[in-house]
Design brief:
53% helix; two-stranded antiparallel ribbon
């Protein structure tokens, strides 16, 4: 269990923070941006869950995902090392990615096929899930920038972010009365 007795430490006043390894970096560091995006995604899911209370499996899955996003933040805030022993550091797993894929398939099976692009909106739950999806995509882009800069990022962490945004898209469709309340893009309708 984590114990936080003091919330403010003043150590970040000069724009610096520490990774989980203790290494001091800029608050604008690509790694901080990546796990910060994960934190933003988690906050969006908290907002979405205000609208999924009583939605059974959907709300329970979102609650589990919120917990997993803390795991993902821990993973991203701890640069992998080549000699790292399995289980030495909290990392995302392939099993977590596979579970998201299975959950996407279950939700998607209850939806009509897409005939057009979906506009974010519809029910409050769907709108909030679409917002979470776009924030998740931003976190994913930050993780990609981190990896492209030559910084190590665990493979399952990258996959989880990509799959999560897919899950949130399908969950938003599901929250729109299983597709019945979806709002579709009408190409060139206002020309």
């Amino acid at each position: 269990m984590v114990t936080l007795n003091r919330i403010y430490t003043r150590t970040g006043d000069a724009g610096r923070t520490r990774l989980a390894t203790g290494q001091t970096v800029s608050k604008a560091d690509l790694r901080v941006e990546a796990y910060g995006g994960v934190d933003e995604t988690n906050a969006c899911l908290g907002l979405a869950r205000l609208h999924t209370t009583g939605a059974g499996d959907l709300d329970a899955t979102l609650a589990r995902i919120q917990n997993e996003l803390f795991d993902l933040g821990a993973d991203l805030s701890t640069p992998p090392k080549p000699d790292e022993a399995e289980g030495q550091v909290l990392r995302m797993s392939e099993a977590q990615v596979t579970r998201l894929e299975q959950e996407i398939d279950v939700l998607n099976a209850a939806l009509p096929p897409l005939a057009s692009f979906v506009l974010p909106g519809g029910t409050p739950a769907a709108a909030a899930l679409h917002l979470a999806r776009t924030v998740c995509r931003r976190a994913e882009r930050a993780a990609v920038r981190l990896a492209e800069a030559g910084e190590p990022v665990s493979g399952p962490a990258m996959k989880y972010l990509n799959r999560l945004s897919d899950y949130l898209f399908v969950a938003a469709r599901f929250a729109n009365d299983r597709g019945a309340a979806e709002v579709f893009w009408s190409s060139g309708a206002t020309r």
